Backbone:
């Protein structure tokens, strides 16, 4: 993925904050997750078989600052290995007038799954921005069975 230095700094800052919050405790049956969602195409590519499609259904919203939105809803990741559903809560900012474009920061708690993801628990963190003609979201976190 190509990014300008400002975008790289933003992603590093978001990732550092996420890692500090997430802590380092890990069970043996957990898998560190790394991936990328292309919101423009509705796809995900990542480890742990997270290659497939994504769909989000918002079911609540809050009062955000101008040009931004806060949200919560169900994110469904569908892969050839099964489906995992997460409760995603976060913020999107259009950053009107910013040459760097819109950004997304959110967190998803695993709720349920099928196939490989049956009984999965854990948290995924999302940090997104526009790269070229696509809105790309870096995915990190941990899923456990």
Residues:
């Amino acid at each position: 993925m190509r990014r300008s230095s400002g975008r790289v700094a933003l992603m590093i800052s978001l990732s550092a904050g996420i890692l500090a919050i997430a802590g380092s405790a890990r069970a043996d049956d957990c898998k560190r997750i790394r991936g990328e969602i292309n919101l423009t195409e509705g796809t995900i590519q990542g480890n742990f078989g997270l290659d497939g499609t994504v769909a989000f259904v918002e079911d609540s919203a809050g009062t955000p600052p101008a040009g931004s939105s806060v949200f919560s809803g169900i994110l469904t990741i569908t892969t050839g290995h099964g489906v995992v559903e997460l409760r995603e809560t976060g913020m999107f900012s259009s950053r009107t007038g910013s040459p760097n474009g819109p950004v997304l920061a959110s967190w998803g708690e695993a709720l349920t799954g099928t196939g490989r993801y049956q009984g999965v628990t854990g948290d995924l963190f999302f940090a997104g921005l526009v790269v070229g003609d696509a809105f790309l979201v870096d995915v990190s976190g941990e899923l456990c069975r």
Remarks:
- Strands lie at 30-38, 43-46, 52-61, 68-79, 82-93, 103-113, 121-131, 134-144.
- The chain has one domain: 5-144.
- The radius of gyration is 15 Å.
